[in-house]
Amino acid sequence: MTTFTVGWLYPDLMNIYGDRGNIITLLKRAEWHGFEPRLVELGRGASEQMADVDVFFFGGGQDREQALVYNDLLEYKREPLENAVKEGAQVLAVCGGYQLLGHYYQTAEGDRFDGIGLIDVATEAGTKRYIGDVVVQTSIEGLTPDTLVGFENHSGRTFLGKDVKPLGKVLMGKGNNGSDKTEGCVQGGVIGTYLHGSLLPKNPHLADYLIKRALTRRGVADLSPLDDSAELAAHGWILQRAQRQ
Amino acid sequence: MGVRKTAAVWAGKATGTLSRITKRGGGTTLPGDIARAIDPRILTRLTQDLTHGSIVVTGTNGKTTTARLISWLLEGAGHRVVANRAGANLIFGVTTAALNRASTGGRLRADWGVFEIDEASLPKAVEEIKPKATLVMNLFRDQLDRYGELETIAKKIEKALTNLDTDASAILNADDPRVAEIGLNLPRKPTWYGLDDTSVATTTLPHAADARTCPKCGSSLIFSAVYVGHDGVYACPRGDFARPAPDLTATQIELNGFDVLATTIEGNRIEIPLGGLYNVYNVLAAYAAARTIGLEPEYIAQRLRTFKAAFGRQERVEFRGRHLILVLSKNPAGFNETVRTAVDLAHGTNFILGLNDRKADGTDVSWIWDVDFELLKDRAQVVIPAGVRANDLAVRLKYAGVEAEAPQTDPGKALDQLIKTTKEGDVAYVLCTYTAMLDIRAELVRRGWAQPYWET
Q1: Do B395 and A129 touch (CB under 8 A)?
Q2: Backbone angles phi, psi at B9, to 5 degrees
């Protein structure tokens, strides 16, 4: 049986917004698709087994926890993560994780914290927090439905460089920076986004997109269809409410 | 007496009466709003009338029950108590509570004020009320959409406690690492309380746990006992930080579903008709407050035997031979405990789980993924996802391996489904977020099975 391995970066420190929902969804869906799911927790100091990981997840944290992660990320995770992505592993980074994978995060006082530059984005602190439901029309081809739904809560303003594409166009909510209508980014096998809620449970098509792309290198051509009526009902409910507003 | 104070009381009181006559709810915050517009210092002026002073209770979980326990103890000892009972715990709600008890001459005729205060409102409350005792219960993740982050709230609480009068006590939960950090930074040592009975502890943190790193060196804390959420006995592996030694402990804990719990504090056996380990913390906190203001242990133990729970906190409703137990479940730590108590201790099988995303619930529902609904798998027979976000709960239950009924966004339909699937004589549990519980309760009232809450 083909194994499917999820690597969870800093599960104890970076899991503020129900991020565990993304992990559960990846593992359960992989199991339902007939693979053997496996979870590797990558806490501080850990860098073993990163080459085995198919999909990395990197969630959001509070400022205090995020500060504890910076150095560890550079020291232990940067290189193995870059190598894994070259080999075809996928990465989903949400909120704080998204910011840390970019070039830098600049605070309101002008201090810069370097990210690992895995994706061509940079973030600066804003004054107002963007909080609320988000609906995105995704630019990823072949996703049905072509919408993503979630909840955002961030004061960072992320701007995209030329090497990334936006994950999608904001139909409701603020997205990356509240000014250019973009939300998230895609660069090769790396997806960054501000959407939690949790993201993958309500967007099963995106979960399957990650699983399928990661397992291509293990010779998996297609995934068996699953009954997603419950997931899509939750997805559709947000779309309906967005239309009423 | 100031003319302004009297005018503010009059205007506030008139608003409350109007609000009740027009049936726009219990009028629990608007009167305070109006009175404060006329006299911004009205709460200070009113609480100065109290013959003894005030006790305020804050923290993520357990505020309402603990405040109610303290009121219960004071009233039983012959004190006149003013309290914000309806869970209206922002500064307007507290002002309204004081107004309601003020005479038309503008005087607050009571001995004690017992107020539950929203964590973010504590600085203002301490400044205006000047409490004799301030209780900090715990700090869990809750409604991140509204407050920003736990750390911001913790800093606010620390600032408020630092500004307490020198004759005022701070009573803090030593078992909560973030609360302990606040207490250790204070200019004067607070009264610490904590649980001390490893027979009811686990050694692994639940998924909803947070605030688990040493404030000095950032190392992950090592827990030798976990009681509720991240509350337990902990230490930094490098020796930089550890749970402060409690001045008051609850030992020899016995739990029996939602019906009753027993514990020993200061050598006195306490039995109370409340359920769940989380309520041991509430009882211990109330006990600590009562002792601080001079109530005797024997009296406390005797009085607690006849305690009645507050709205939606394990309220019992009988309907056509079915027993409904309503338990407010607001956030991951709270929901984990109510599910654990219902399944492990009460052996519950039938459930309505209600999730709303209105302002009072928190508009971000991602926290349901931090609740260990997996506990219900193979043990619950009927699980009905309800509330505005019933569809999200249905997905959560699916991924927890729980076979649930179809989601019901309409509270009436959820209740119908529960009655249909629950046999006469059986017990069903209704675990809901704040406004989801209000919705279910409104439906129960409409059907004549329960009383409107502001009358209880």
Answers
A1: no
A2: -65, -45
